[in-house]
Fold each of these.
Amino acid sequence: MKNTNNNNNNNTKLILLHPYIQKQGSSNRLWLLAFISIFTLAFLLTLIYTREAYSITTATTSITSSTPINTINAPLPSTVINTLLHYASKSNDTYHMNYSDLKSISDVLRKCSSPCNFLIFGLTGETLLWKALNHNGRTVFIDENRYYAAYIEEKHPELDVFDVQYTTKRSEMKELIASAKEQVSNECKPVQNLLFSDCKLGLNDLPNHVYEVDWDVILVDGPRGDWPDAPGRMSAIFTAGVLARSKNGGNPKTHVFLHDYFGEVERVCGDEFLCKENLVEKSQTLGHFVLEKMDEKSVHYCKNVNNNNNSSSTTSS
């Protein structure tokens, strides 16, 4: 009986252990199956996402590569330019430029290599027009009225406006020209960095980067010169001539436009510092000069010195 009981006990143990082992193995397989399912699902989601991202990237790259680079920095369409010129020439401002003068400047800006560097002396009714026409280019304005300059910059933060303190008087034009000619080999050289110059006609208190830019187009339409103590445009014209001749790179030629060319200061200083030999186009109100980069050892503003002196003396008399 003792043996029988032992056998029964052994059998009982076997019966009790067998289901436990079976249940444990089944649980492990379930966990393994669940893990494989989750891993497979994650892999499929990753694969689908990667393929979609790749498709979008490929499509974007294809569109970008098929789009000409020039369209990104494309110039303004002719219709837009002509519209701007039309409405600017119809302005109610008494001192606005006429259509032919606006078009002359606009035509040069359109031919200018991009980005075009455009420097303007004077804040006028055409200020916003110049910014718009020099699309994708660099446009900088210089004005003698610090309060008006601040007002314009606050009203139109997209504009780069700097004020400058002129120390000249219109009534001193002849003395200032004579002084510049006497110092032509020293402080008033035609090729120099005006930032370090003490020439009476040179503007040396502009922001440093203004002297470092190779300007493609310069417009002199300021400062004021309507009365004897007004600053006049002598310094602006002289500075424009020096900046054009002192370029370090870029296009060796610079277009300089001189507005109100009928005025005495504009004609005399234009002939003296921009030179008649460089005058390529003129109207009653606008002079268009094209100046070339000069050697730093040059001591003459104009190549044809004798003819220029004769024309200046004739104009003054």
Amino acid sequence: MQQTRVSLIGAPTDIGAGVRGSSMGPEALRVANIVDALRARGVEVEDRGNLSGPSNPVLPPEDGYRHLEEVTQWNEAVHTAVHRELGRGRFPMLLGGDHSLALGSISAVARHCRERGKSLRILWLDAHADFNTRKITPSGNIHGMPVACLCGLGPDPLIRIGGHTPAIDPSWIRQIGIRSVDEGEKRLVHEMKLDVFDMRYIDEHGMRQTMDRALAGMDENTHLHVSFDVDFLDPEIAPGVGTTVRGGPNYREAQLCMEMIADTARLASLDVVELNPALDHRNRTANLAVDLIESLFGKSTLMRSE
């Protein structure tokens, strides 16, 4: 790993989700001993505690968005915290919270990369494309919109976070494990030419070839960001999420994915989102998430002799 000084940033909110409970995700990861697990990998860890923001008002959508003002406030706080840690030369690890928070996190990473002249690669590990807009969303839940907003398709308060619109170019992102895309999203994903490795691709080509392609083209000047939605995993092994979709990666596929990311030595920031302890069994999903995060930081069955 290039960067072994990790700052944990908790964002305990389910403000952008349709199901309550992901606000408890940061504490569930701490209960699963994420700090000790990382330190066992030789990582220096500082837990910055939890950010604060508005509570979830549980209101219906307004003009196509649920809780737009509150989601904006949370993402502004996340953006500030993540950008600050990057500026200190640290590795920010966002503990969510729902996936709308990736707006703040990734916009901060993109801002940092622009300031430092670095290229950015984003791996979006998720069951969903999260490319909805106000006109096509079936729910108005903003956790289904962050990729679209990052690409400049969304309300001004969200797409302007970080001061650069759009925050990212669609060519920087690789979506992996996708298996649930709304009809309107499909058209937008094709129009924006997103690079999507859905579950059919993984079934046909395997996780190794998938990751080889998703990671291709990076160099020493690349900042690799991973946005890990826990519903990326098959719900048989990870039941503690609010939006389960059958047919996701199994344990070994997920481990290979994480180990290949670690092998690049380019990983420099991470989101861990959508963990919902209210729907979990004895913190099983949080424990699995921590196990996989360890693999991102170099844990493997045997030492590799290249």
Amino acid sequence: MQLSSLFASPVLLLQLCIDSLRFMFASFFSKLYYSTVYSETISSVAPAASKVHQEKDRNVMTPTSVNYHFTRKCNYKCGFCFHTAKTSFVLPLDEAKRGLKLLKESGMEKINFSGGEPFLHDRGEFLGELVQYCKQDLQLPSVSIVSNGSTIKEEWFQKYGDDLDILAISCDSFDESTNQLIGRTQGGKSHIDNLHKIRSWCQQYKVAFKINSVINTFNMYEDMTENILQLNPVRWKVFQCLLIDGENAGEKALREAERFVISEQLFQEFLERHSSVPCLVPESNEKMRNSYLILDEYMRFLDCREGRKDPSKSILDVGVKKAICFSGFDENMFLKRGGKYVWSKADMKLEW
């Protein structure tokens, strides 16, 4: 068609204008539609993705209460010990403090120092430095120790007692001959006399006193009610003897604890016999195996679910969040067994 004939026909000219306008509007609304759909899709996906990340963060375990076995060395030879002297390694003080700071930054509220025997290394000064650092520098609500009590001196309380919330002394029997059979003894010293001496120091220096007992074939029929009531600890932890391959059972173990193990029924009978003791806190093997966060001397979390101690990588190398994923820790069981309690001596309202 020639240009002259196009201009000569008003109808064709009008049709051309209408078609052009249609194309422009169609293009505009198409872009607007897809832009709106894309925005709505992104806005719906973003909260979902955010929710997934939040859920993932919630699933990261918090090291609320940690047991740091910084040494394996011990002067006792308890036949059922499940953290034996397989090495003599102890971290340098600065490295130990660095690890404790990482734990605090990840949510730790309570630290418990154990061993081996924690008062052996550097005659208790290393332990005292860690206690002081955790309370004064890290401002932890609770700092505690588990010890056999054999090497504790009053001078230690004078220097570090203010910064210690709880001192737990292991005592499996109030019969000296039974302690001898178990291996909780050294030379001619009386473990029971020492227990009472430390109890009086705790009272004098305002440290909450606790007793830990492992129930086994040598003490399962003993009635400790009168002695426990007399000592009046804030807690009396009663454990069922536990086998750990490579520690107190198996070919590579330094102990042979099979002869100490009792059945669940006998453990329950012991608990029933002591049910009148108000401070009794029972812990069966089921509760104990995966409800504790245990750090070894290299600051590796130990997974005990398979009946042995499988170490994670050290928190000093990979951080707390990565290491704790391999700990086997069951937070629900930790709470179920009463792992979180009034653990700061400032909140216990004790009569000193």
Amino acid sequence: MNDTDIATERRTATPAELGFSMPAEFAPHDACWMLWPQRPDNWRYGAKPAQAAFVAVARAIAESETVFVGVNDDQYENARNQLPSRIRVIELSSNDAWMRDVGPTFLTHPDGRLAMVDWEFNAWGGLNGGLYFPWDKDRRIRQKIAEVLGIERFITPLVVEGGAIHVDGEGTLITTEECLLNPNRNPDLAKPEIERLLCAYLGVEKIIWLPRGCFQDETDGHVDNLCCFVAPGEVALTWTDDDSDPQHAISREALGILEAATDARGRRLTVHKLPMPGPLTIAETEASGVDRLSSSRPRQPGDRMAASYVNFYIGNSVVVMPRLDPAHDDEAHAILENLFPGRRVVAVDAREILLGGGNIHCITQQQPRV
């Protein structure tokens, strides 16, 4: 029996009991994992514009660390020819391209071991508001990556997506009630039980609950679109001063909770406001390029998108942020430069990713250094 078999069979000890925990994203990485977009009912024009955006993100992160891009077999040659040779392209079938949510949550151990949490995945709500069907290939991704890396895999029945959680690496986790307490995720679990499981599988000690995620976020309010840790005791928060915009009340509510909170080490949090782009909506030409299928979420002209500059990726030497709105791009870039003085901030045109329902953080998953 190999290590993966042992990890799969283990039911008595949790990762936290064994000394594992989830590092912060700003801690050193060994690699970044991504997937390749192709489904025509989510990405317009056969995903060609989205593929170009994914290539730009992968190029930027590859300055900083190894990048793996998983592709379906029928897209392997296309992806290999578009991506630089230093980026590793592997056959890894998926239903769509959101590695943050369908990929593993990596854990590390003080003795140098790497492991992962294999959450349950139901495509952001299953048959009760989920975004597509089926999601069978997505559910196998974590097991495949565990076998590629030869690491322990801790299986949990808790439905959690990677974008629903942010940690500081020092015992604190931030999430939203809108997502993890949604009846389409874990209807049989109360809040205290979900907290217990998060602590047991991620090695955290304190959970800060924000009520809601960004306005009309189709993931049911993922925290990574609203708020994230940028350093121990410091968070970035999506913000708008326009009190007529629905996002204003959401961000103001979150600000009050964050400023009143302390982390697992007893520190008060410093909150850095990042301006909200837009509001941004889907254009007629953008909606018309998407196939309409009953098994996936429709893209309608005029629909507001949950655009956020908080949805960036922190690499070893770069921070890759979305370029979304000329009115706010430069301001957001400057704020991130101040927050990450030791990293180069790279802005990537990301509207094509946003049109698919997420952004740069949503399509990436860091593998921590051990």
